[in-house]
Amino acid sequence: MAGEDGVKTFGWAARDTSGILSPFEFTRRATGAKDVRFKVLFCGICHTDLGAARGDLGLPIYPLVPGHEIAGIVTEIGKQVTRFKVGDKVGVGCFVGSCRSCEQCSNDLEPYCPKNIMTYLSIGEDGAPTHGGYSNEMVVDEHFAIRWPENLPLDGGAPLLCAGSTVYSPMMYYGLNKPGSHLGVVGLGGLGHVAVKFAKAWGLTVTVISTSARKEEEAINRLGADKFLVSTDPQQMQEATGTLDGIIDTVSAFHPVMPLFGLLKTHGKLVVVGAPNKPLEVDIFPLMIGRKMLASSAAAGIKETQEMIDFAAKHNITADVEVIPANYVNKAMERLEKGDVRYRFVIDIGNTLVAAPST
Ligand code: NAP
Ligand code: ZN
Ligand code: ZN
């Protein structure tokens, strides 16, 4: 239902640090002059959703509706909207607001704006907690909405809005996209498998570095990686010493990073985009003698997210997804924690998210 009073919305929310999600009704702001409102059709499940639901990412705001890989169809536009019309496909990633005037915003780097508003786990401009895409309706300023390429599927494309953007942006910024160079991708999950696909589209040689020996066959034959290292096998790691120009580390948990520096050539860069909930341990000396770099990155700004989506569509890059019904979401979270997904769960919101009948 629309109206002056806001958009009645139904979703699944975490209520406490158990992270267990349950049905939740709430109201989104009414569609403002610069807003697009859309019907959510698909939403990916990022590992960050799991951490956020359990309150691992700082102060949780409960109830919390996660989801920042959101794709759908525009149902209403504000009077001043210029880039969308009703019926357009649309996407929203990790951010729904920023100050629009600071140095970072002026350079299309909204994720680094000190006043950025995340799709969930923030307070919105209306003073209410933001809620993500495990819900049937979104209302967002058109600046933060991504135009959807016609040939990109909504289900396989949705995860690109966070997973794709979070690996694409550092690969561009740190120059890890140069054809012929050799990239390592650590952790073959949602982010990692998309990183392999972008790197291959740029013409890089790709080595996957994984704890799961059973992923080797699919990494090479399905995702197109060139080499595969089991990170817990010291001999394999030793043999690959000094072979990589750069590494994108997507691991979601604490893990040793010093063996990864050993894989880098002189001047190599290790870019950690995973968000372990314990500090990583770094010995500076091996970095010093190889002039190696440790760096990190958030997801892409809005302009770059659009470029990434257009690039993905042009190169037929989508995430490998397991599409699930909304009422499977708690089971999916359990399986995600165990690494039991190839490689992204995507909730079929459009067909399966049903509000409880009102009494
Ligand atoms: P995911 O699908 O669960 O993948 C993470 C991968 O890390 C797993 O598939 C596994 O790969 C590896 N891994 C897990 N536990 C490990 C351990 N104890 N030791 C070594 N490797 C382990 O998660 P995701 O959605 O890709 O997200 C990855 C991380 O990035 C999360 O921490 C997430 O919060 C973070 N993230 C950050 C940003 C950002 O803005 N920087 C954005 C999105 C997500 P193998 O089986 O191949 O070892
Ligand atoms: Zn994410
Ligand atoms: Zn700003």
TrEMBL record:
What InterPro entries does this protein's entry cite? ADH-like_C (IPR013149), ADH-like_N (IPR013154), ADH_Zn_CS (IPR002328), CAD-like (IPR047109), ER (IPR020843), GroES-like_sf (IPR011032), NAD(P)-bd_dom_sf (IPR036291)
Q: What is this protein called?
A: Mannitol dehydrogenase-like
Q: Does the keyword Transmembrane helix apply?
A: no
Concerning its family, UniProt says:
Belongs to the zinc-containing alcohol dehydrogenase family.
Keywords of the record, alphabetical order, are: Metal-binding, Oxidoreductase, Zinc
Q: Which cofactor does it need?
A: Zn(2+)
Which residue range or ranges hold the Enoyl reductase (ER) domain? Answer: 19-347
Tell me the superkingdom of the source: Eukaryota
